[in-house]
Amino acid sequence: MGDQNSILLVEDDAEIGELISRYLENNGMGVTWVESGEALDRKLASAAYDIIILDLNLPGEDGLSICRRVSASRDIPIIIVTAKGEDVDKIVGLEMGADDYLVKPFNPRELLARVRAVLRRAEPQARGNDDAARQTFQFLGWRVNLLAREVVSPAGAKVAMTGAEFDLLHAFCENPNRVLTRDQLINMTHGRTAGPFERSIDVLVSRLRQKLEKDPKTPSMIQTIRSEGYMLSAPVVRA
Predict the structure, then answer these.
(1) Gap between the terminal Cα atoms of the chain
(2) Nearest 5°: CA angle at 28, between 116 and 100?
(3) Could you say which of 23, 32, 47, 229 has the lowest number of CB atoms within 10 Å?
(4) What is residue 11's DSSP assignment?
(5) Where are the beta strands (DSSP E) in 99-226?
(6) How would you class 84 by CB atoms within 10 Å of its CB: exposed for 0-12, middle for 13-18, buried for 19 or more?
(7) At what angle do helices 163-174 and 182-189 cross, to 10 degrees?
(8) How far is CA 103 from CA 32, 108, 141, in A?
(9) Which residue from 19, 187, 37, 188 is spatially nearest to 112, judged by alpha carbons?
(10) pLDDT, tens digit, for every residue of 113-158?
(11) Could you tell me the domains of the chain?
């Protein structure tokens, strides 16, 4: 697809699928449209994609199940799209590993903005010089490489992170031992594409704790500051 971003769209509604595909393609995206999890698996086995747009209400395997297994096995951003507007559906989708969500009906322009934002967060950012390009945060034996968007544990193992999880960890590393409110974290990780759904930050913090903390139920690194927000309680060195 050349320099186009490649999108795998999973949507069983023909009218919506055609609308999304046409709009994204008219805005310079390459779109492959399938209607089920089984078809998605076939496409992922034969080609690489930059992002998945995933409807939750699908025939056969539902979108939440697809989101969980794909995010567990592949490093590819996922935006979930659902006709359900209840908070619980958004929370579950984020817990399953989605990077963002959008509730139907929506303006295609908003979907495009979210796709671009997620892709921007997922790509290594070019720096002004070689030293800046190799910037790494270190804390308590952990290493966070900004250019490679790579997280390495004290034992030397690479820890898989979704784009949203990495951005949240980056925000904490930039502000160690400082309380960050949910609004601040939303702005740091999602910017203008964020909605008012603060609980999404709680879900991301929980996911991050599962990967960083020895005991996520009693976290020592990412602490909850009651009525205020969250704080990375660790000295951070920038190399």
Answers:
(1) 37
(2) 25
(3) 47
(4) -
(5) 100-103, 136-139, 142-145, 150-152, 158-159, 222-225
(6) middle
(7) 120
(8) 21, 11, 40
(9) 19
(10) 989 888 877 665 444 444 444 589 999 999 999 888 899 999 999 9
(11) 5-122 (3.40.50.2300), 130-238 (1.10.10.10)
